[in-house]
Design a protein that fits this description.
- With 108 residues, the chain is mainly α.
- It has two domains: 1-47; 64-108.
- It has helices at 2-23, 29-47, 49-58, 65-107.
- α1 (2-23) packs antiparallel against α2 (29-47).
Length: 108
Amino acid sequence: MFQQTIALIIIAILLSRLIWQKQKKQIPKNEFLFWFLFWFLAAIAISGIKWIDKIVSKLGFSGSGIDVLLYLGIIILFYLIFKIRIRQEKQSREITEIIRKISLKNNN
């Protein structure tokens, strides 16, 4: 119970910081919605950890609900890293193409 309270306090701080960034227009609307939904769902999952424990045990898994949330979090992190890597590679190719065009234009 103590860990849940600490986690919910941290999420509340993160949500308030997120809202503050949105008010200061430091974060785009789509990104705000994504992170708000992410942290809101995290708070719900932490609040309902006993319910998740019951579901996990009914499905026949030996781990607890917190283990499932941890594994899910790791999967989401790897997915986001993968998406960032793809975007970075695309930007790198675009920059290379722009530099190539500028270089060819300046040589003529």
